[in-house]
Amino acid sequence: MTLATHDVRWGAGGRMIVDGITLSAPPGRILGLIGPNGSGKSSLLRLLCRLRGVASGVVTLDGRDIAALPRRELARRLAFVEQQATTDVQLTVCDVVRLGRTPHRAAFASWTEADEHAVEAALERVGLAERHDQPWHTLSGGERQRVHIARALAQDPRELILDEPTNHLDIQHQLSILGLIRRLGLTCIVALHDLNLASLFCDRIGVLHAGRLVASGSPENVLTPELIRQVFGVEVHIRDGVGGRRHIEYVVDVEPGERP
Ligand SMILES: Nc1ncnc2c1ncn2[C@@H]1O[C@H](COP(=O)(O)OP(=O)(O)O)[C@@H](O)[C@H]1O
Ligand SMILES: [Mg+2]
Fold first, then answer.
1. Is this entry keyworded Lyase (predicted)?
2. Least CB-packed of 29, 144, 154, 249 within 10 Å?
3. Domain presence at residue 255
């Protein structure tokens, strides 16, 4: 067992934004959340890691209501990489990653060898070991995303939640971040907006539409032309792609040769 939601609801401004969602993360696998802008992905992720409380329903970790877990205990299990995590520009790479150790350290305790080891191991896993002392403001977008993932890994979580971790990255860096996430072998819940990347990297996919879960299952079963038309309002052809994964081809209303 791992992270699950049971008929979870949350609203704001008199509107239901997460509307009765029941899903569970397959242990050690990647659950992708897809859906149009404003469908409730980020809101659901925030409920999953208790940055917000549910209005009704329950989020469970190993069958226990997360609302009843001490914050430190939750933070030792579950790490969140936010979409637009803000970071103090004065910090260096290792300063940022060290923040991930907070839930493991007693108040006023000194920095231990185990803490240092966790930080080094996390930087190693994201391929930035030699960037230890580089100032944050000098990093590229892809490197910043890796450092945020390293901070989450220094937390030593078993569940990792990521909100559009490939945003603003070029295609090479998108593939490399998702490859990295896959190799971690953790239970991951990741909001993605690229359907082909979701198809390539996720073991299961949940589709959100106006706050509701309208489909869930394997990418092969979920990513159908009907579903994509209904939820995203676009026409697609589905082809066989890399490793038997589905490749989604968008049907666009432009005749070949129409270019000026
Ligand atoms: N705190 C809030 N107050 C009012 N509306 C909100 C709040 N948070 C999110 N929303 C609204 O909820 C909807 C879903 O937002 P979000 O969860 O960010 O969607 P997604 O991540 O799928 O783009 C949007 O219409 C957004 O404006
Ligand atoms: Mg979002």
1. no
2. 249
3. no
